[in-house]
Amino acid sequence: MSCALSTPLSCPHLRFLEDTMQLNHLNLCVSNVPEACSFFQRCFDLHLLQQHKKALAVLSDEHCFTLVLMNPQALQQEMRPYPDGFHIGFLLDTPEQVEQTYQRLVAEGVQFLHEPRKIRKSYGFYFTALDDILFEVSCPLSLQATAPQESA
After folding, report:
1. pLDDT, tens digit (0-9, with 9 covering 90-100), for 92-125
2. Full residue range of the structural domain in which residue 66 is found
């Protein structure tokens, strides 16, 4: 797997950021690193780069985003809960990609806060996993992309 930091962003609403600094690394504390590592690989196509026993794993994606999963307890540190409102998000390009990700997560047995729907100017859904961390999966709604219609 290789990634080029100079590749254009795929999200049209973020194209203005092409020449600016981007957040490309996150350290996420979890109580079970192997479980979290497997979850991100299966559900979000991240690739394992390195793992240090049950204490730490480093994953990446094709956009050069690096996710470090760390168990503070394995390093003799306290595991603290994330504050209310903290969440991590996966921004996709189209409502169809949101639906595909939703179906993948359904197959994994994930419990959702709601099905994919229009949320402000986006289409997406939320769920909790891995020590009750809030996840968001969404895409921007533009004039060209509209949310799938609710079935009657």
Report:
1. 999 999 999 999 999 999 999 889 999 889 999 9
2. 23-75
